[in-house]
Amino acid sequence: MIWVSWRQHRSQAIVGLGLICAFAVYGLVLGLQMRTSFSNNNLATCLAHSLGASCLNSVASFDNRFGSLVNIGFYAVLLLLPGLIGAVVGATVLGRELEMGTWRLAWSQTVPRTRWLIVQLAVAATGLIVLGAVITLIITWYRAPMDRLTGHFVHNAYDYEGLVFTAYILFAFGLAVLAGQLLRRSIPAMLAALVPWVAVRLVVEFAIRPHFMTPLRFVDHCSNGCIGGGNSIVDVPPVTGHLGDLLVGNGATNAYQPASRFWEFQSIEAGIFVALTLAVLGVTVWLVHRRGT
Amino acid sequence: MTHDDTGGGPALRTAGLGKRYGHVWGLRDCTLTVPAGAIVGLVGPNGAGKTTLLEMIIGLLKPSEGQIEVFGRTAQANTAQTLARVGYVAQNRPLYPDFSVADMFHLGQAMNPNWDMNMAAARMEALDVPLKRKVKALSGGQQAQVSLAMALAKRAPLLVLDEPVASLDPVARLEFMREVMAQAADGGYTVILASHVVSELERFCDFLVVLAHGHAQLIGPVDELLGEHQLLTVPRTTPDADLPGTAIHRTDSDRHSSVVLRTSPATPATRAHPGWQTESVGFEQLVLAYLQRPAKGANSSNPARGAEPSGPTTKVMSR
Questions:
Q1: Does residue B4 belong to any structural domain of this protein?
Q2: Cα diameter, chain B
Q3: What is the ipTM metric for this complex?
Q4: Range of the domain at B149
Q5: Do B59 and A108 touch (CB under 8 A)?
Q6: pTM
Q7: Nearest-CA neighbor of A259 among A166, A147, A183, A182?
Q8: B77 touches chain A (CB under 8 A)
Q9: Among the three residues B181, B212, B243, which one is the final residue of a domain in this structure?
Q10: A231 contacts: CB under 8 Å, gap ≥ 6
């Protein structure tokens, strides 16, 4: 049974592997350039001592050179990427079977359809977890120098370094599997899955994430200007004085999430998306079971 | 090859079988018994409930009411025991286009405990279908043979074929049906063949089931059914009630009417009315007569044709 699922997703796996290879080459080239530039300007020492205040020009030139490559590129391409990956794979699981009529072949063999579906889901999800983890590792590696300037809580780092990227893929996958069952078409299922996926992503990212844990309070001691304050080159909230802290509501309430909570936040958010995925897939398995009854 | 689990009883028995989709009945009150070894022709217009009936027999669909027994055991939808007992070639003969023939058989092996790989491979060799070729590169006839091989290699005693030769060219149709008949004879399969092509059913089937309006209209061995019906030509003025049997379908011309009549053996039509002309009815005429029969309830609007036939025989279903 596992072989059957693997064989059905083989061409997708090959495309996925190709995607990873191309992305790894891009990451390697960009990562090496950033590392070279970073060490040539002695940015590490400067950042460690003064959070960049003593080397504003070097920080600025590094940011100018690489900022758009790693940040704008992220917004344009990578924001939708996990959704697309998950939706493409998910839409084939039921959507394509129902569209092509092959469900009659698959479900009339000596394997009850619910078992068939669970194996299909397990095999596809395993592949997606591996894919998500590898992409996460590549991004985390090549972005590392930039993260020294920004911390990990900024959207461009947080969404791609850690657990959430893979969880986003799984959620899109689950939605597309369900949409395939409901729409009985693969392409419409793919598109239909992306709409709720983007909506939930944005709501979680902007409305819920800042409140995963009770924020800490800071005393605003920066009315007279702080280190790095005003130039916004280094993403250190000037008021807290720590790289990578996340201000809640732009700091208006004097609340922030400290950078040290990164992995707790990642776990909470990944947990949310995995739970949503399991719920959606549970509904799908139930619907498929009920279809024949 | 013999099937040890066929027992001595009928291959298929359904009682009061029905399937409802929302408020609409796709099939209702279907009671039939198919003897083991029969080649059953299942005929009916689109939407008559053929695929619904077949999917319930296979175990893809759970009946809303009634029972199905396949070789004496109650069929339960979506269970391995039930699925294992029926080999199925679905409508449009679905296969995975980017699988090779060998991949398809590998799938069959992975998903069926009794899979006969040697048989499947030998059949492809005999038919000159290369195992390494992708399904999408095969001709329609070859794809149909792959589908048939998959249904046969499952080693299930009942073979269900839903429009298996639709969209095939005449030669491929013939070759396909020849394979089915040869396998049925060799392996002792019971075959249920749904088709729109009445001439094909006539050629191959020894048992007939006509479905229309979600009901089984006619069920029985072909020989018996042909013996029980006559084509009768009577003056146009003769009401249905005077006919020595049940008028199934009546065609009126200027002066005469020709009636497909279900007779009772005790009262031959010709004896009572020497002026009437009787002929034996052909297979296709018989099928068409039942297919053209109006739905139940529509008859009452046409009193000249007589009321609903009284006392239907046990094999003609009525509500």
A1: no
A2: 68
A3: 0.84
A4: 12-212
A5: yes
A6: 0.86
A7: A147
A8: yes
A9: B212
A10: A56
